[in-house]
Amino acid sequence: xxxxxxxxxxxxxxxxxxxxxxxxxxxxxxxxxxYHVRRYVHCHDDANDILQxxxxxxxxxxxNFRGESGLYTWLYRIAGNEAITYINKIKKHPTVDIDQTTxxxxxxxxxxxxxxxxxxxxxAIGLLPDKQKQVFIMRYYDELPYEQISEIVNTSVGALKAxxxxxxxxxEEMLTT
Length: 177
Known about the structure:
By secondary structure, the chain is mainly α. It has helices at 5-13, 18-38, 44-61, 71-92, 112-127, 130-141, 146-153, 157-176.
């Protein structure tokens, strides 16, 4: 059964139904948030760890949710920020993990050229500054409108369009060199 955001938030207000509300929130959003995080990191286990950390933050912070944005927007922001935090931590303390060396490929074909192109694209996205990476992923992969991205990252639509444009240009340069 799918619960509305209003029903879930109402359940969170009552200590007797807070755990049920959290289960309903997980039921509604866990899969979408997983795939959002998975676009940042390509290892399933890393994505699960990041998502678990995000849900802990959500559990601890739900009482402070002010409703200034939609519930999904708030959840999306937390999950995205957790992914960026994880990536920055990995950059500071790199380790080699066999799962991270495996190419994550979403194309559904065995075409070697497609796999190589996908890997190049993922590498190029990985080299973008955090803000550009975040905007590019939300716009290109998640196909979110600029207005919704603006709410998530708390930036003007004009600045987002500029970030996306710069990200696309950098990616194009990296793919053609």
